Amino acid sequence: MARAPRTAPPVLPEGAPAxxxxxxxxxxxxxxxxVLLLIVAALIVLAPSLKxxxxxxxxxxxxxxxxxxxxxxVDGLQRDIDRWQDPAYIxxxxxxxxxxxxxxxxxxxxxxxxxxxxxxxxxxxxDEIQTTxxxxxxxxxxxxxxxxxxxxxxxQLISPVQGGVE
Length: 166
Prior knowledge:
Blueprint: H1 30-84, H2 87-97, H3 136-149
C-alpha cells in the first residue's frame, strides 16, 4: 500500500500569529487508535476486579490485625493460667485480695490512703529533703528517759517538741 506524500506544513505570512494548537500537528494512524481503544476497554473491564482486589486486601489486613489482638489476649490469659498453677502466687493473691493471714501474723489495714499528708500548720508535706528543727538524738533520749521514769499513762505524756526541747 502506497503512502501519500507528506506535505510541508503551511507557512504563515510574516506578522501572522501562530494560533494553531500543538495537537493539530500530530498524525494519528488507525493502529494507534485501535491500541488506545483496547487499553481503554481493558481498563473498563479490569477496574471492578481491581477494586474488589484492593477491598479484599484491606479486609485481609484488618482481619490479620484483629487476629493478632486476639492472640495477644489469649497469650495474656495463658500467662494468667500458668501463674495460678504456682502455689506462691495463689498465696500472694489470697493475702492481697482476701486479706488472709497466717495465724500469728499482724496485719495493718489502711482504710483511706488517698488523703494527702499535711503538717501541723496545714501545708502539704513536700518530697524534698529538709533540715529538721529538732535534734532527734536529744528527743529520742528524752523520750526513753521519760518513758522509763514516769508513772503517767501514754495519753498524758507530752512530746519533746511540745515540751520545749528544740
